[in-house]
């Protein structure tokens, strides 16, 4: 039975981005990367609009996702360190390394899933719609709880289902354990469609379960940008 979160966010947000272009030669030179491979993968991610450009604060009472992040921010000490699951290394299905703490400045949607899970496929379909609309505004990560699955199999799963705007990776056993330590075993129960919103300042909300519509995901991520 499909259960959707009561997730009506009324938020007024303005995100402005400006892109300046030089000559073709100058643009070509600007694109030349001298970064090492491990940081180049992060730089290749869509550029998010600055959170400083948001002119209106979200109404946190309207969204469980926003509420969970606001609560986390209000209780976090100024020098709080990020939880282990945000700092552990992840290798995506294309072989690029990153951590979930690399995306400060961008809101992030993290979904834990399994390739055999029908509910996951359905939720990822809605997530893909949100990711396509928010390209350049947010990061979407899907982490397989099947620690022994081949990255190639996960890549084929993403391609076969048209999930082209979501970054897929396989959890390491260490990441799986860190998720359980932080959120309990619900975090690795794929059928409950576990997911976490991370605000642009890097503060994660609570683990949420159940289905989210594309509109709900979009509004929640814009609210915490």
Can you give a write-up of this model?
- The protein is an alpha/beta fold and 225 residues long.
- The protein has a single domain (24-223), classed as Glutaredoxin (3-Layer(aba) Sandwich), CATH 3.40.30.10.
- The protein is 34% helix and 11% strand.
- The chain starts with 23 loop residues before the first helix and ends with a helix.
- The relative contact order is 0.22.
- Residues 1-45 and 49-58 have low confidence and may be disordered.
Task: Write a brief structural summary.
Helices cover 34% and strands 11% of the residues. The chain has eight helices and six strands; from the N terminus they run H-H-H-H-E-E-E-H-E-H-E-H-E-H. Strands 5-4-3-6 form a four-stranded mixed β-sheet. It has a two-stranded antiparallel sheet with strand order 1-2.
Largest sheet geometry: 4 strands, mixed
Indicate the percent of residues in helices.
25-40%
Structural class determined from secondary elements: alpha/beta
By CATH's scheme, which homologous superfamily applies? Glutaredoxin
Overall number of domains: 1
Average of the residue pLDDT scores: 78
Low-confidence stretches: 1-45, 49-58
Biggest β-sheet: strands ordered side by side in the sheet? 5-4-3-6
CATH class, anyone?
Answer: Alpha Beta
Dominant shape: globular
Q: Helix count?
A: 8
What fold name goes in the CATH topology slot?
A: Glutaredoxin
* Extended strand count: 6
| CATH architecture assignment name | 3-Layer(aba) Sandwich
End-to-end C-alpha gap: 32 Å
Q: Tell me the Rg in angstroms.
A: 17 Å
């Amino acid at each position: 039975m499909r259960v959707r979160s009561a997730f009506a966010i009324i938020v007024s947000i303005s995100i402005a981005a400006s892109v300046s272009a030089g000559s073709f030669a100058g643009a070509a030179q600007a694109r030349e990367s001298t970064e090492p491979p491990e940081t180049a993968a992060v730089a290749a991610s869509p550029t998010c609009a600055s959170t400083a450009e948001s002119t209106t604060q979200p109404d946190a009472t309207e969204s469980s996702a926003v509420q969970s992040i606001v609560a986390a921010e209000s209780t976090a000490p100024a020098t709080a360190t990020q939880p282990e699951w945000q700092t552990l290394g992840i290798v995506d299905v294309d072989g690029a390394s990153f951590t979930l703490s690399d995306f400060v400045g961008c809101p992030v949607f993290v979904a834990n899933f399994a390739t055999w899970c029908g509910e996951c496929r359905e939720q990822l379909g809605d997530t893909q719609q949100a990711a396509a609309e928010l390209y350049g505004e947010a990061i979407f990560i899907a982490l397989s709880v099947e620690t022994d699955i081949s990255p190639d199999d996960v890549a084929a799963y993403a391609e076969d289902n048209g999930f082209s705007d979501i970054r897929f990776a396989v959890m390491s056993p260490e990441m799986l354990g860190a998720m359980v330590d932080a959120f309990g075993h619900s975090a690795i129960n794929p059928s409950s469609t576990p997911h976490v919103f991370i605000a642009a300042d890097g503060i994660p909300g609570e683990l949420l379960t159940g289905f989210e519509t594309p509109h709900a995901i979009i509004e929640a991520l814009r609210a915490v940008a």
